[in-house]
Amino acid sequence: MSGTIGFLRQQYQVRRLDRDRSYIESAKSFPENIQVRHVLTYNAGNPPSDEQTATLSMMMNQSMVLLPKEPMRPRYEDYRVGWFTVSQIDYGSDA
Asked: Do residues 21 and 41 touch, judged by C-beta distance below 8 A?
């Protein structure tokens, strides 16, 4: 699952996922769902903060819910439903 969207990928010149610096932070299972939190680090030519690292890191959280035995009615496309991002720069980090 990718954490970057098209225009940000172009703006930050994202090249590829850095597999050595990407990892699963936690995975929790519950009776009806699973929560997975992971950090994705990409090599980037124009990162939004420290250009010396030439990387862009983000924390992602995925929620996977068990579907009911009886299929649900499909939800039609609605522009009001989507996803959002929250930007954060850690100025105290040595990176």
From this structure: yes
Higher pLDDT, 24 or 88: 24
What mean pLDDT, rounded, does the chain reach? 82
Could you tell me which of 44, 39, 41 has the C-alpha nearest to residue 14? 44
Classify residue 74 by its DSSP letter. P
* Residue 2: closest CA among 69, 62, 79, 66: 62
Radius of gyration of the chain (CA): 17
The three-state secondary structure class of 17 is strand
* Residue 78 Cα to chain centre, angstroms: 22
Which tokens go with 33?
Answer: 């769902």
Q: Measured in Å, how far apart are the chain's first and last C-alpha atoms?
A: 25
Comparing CA positions, the residue from 52, 54, 61 lying closest to residue 86 is 61
Residue owning tokens 């850095």: 18
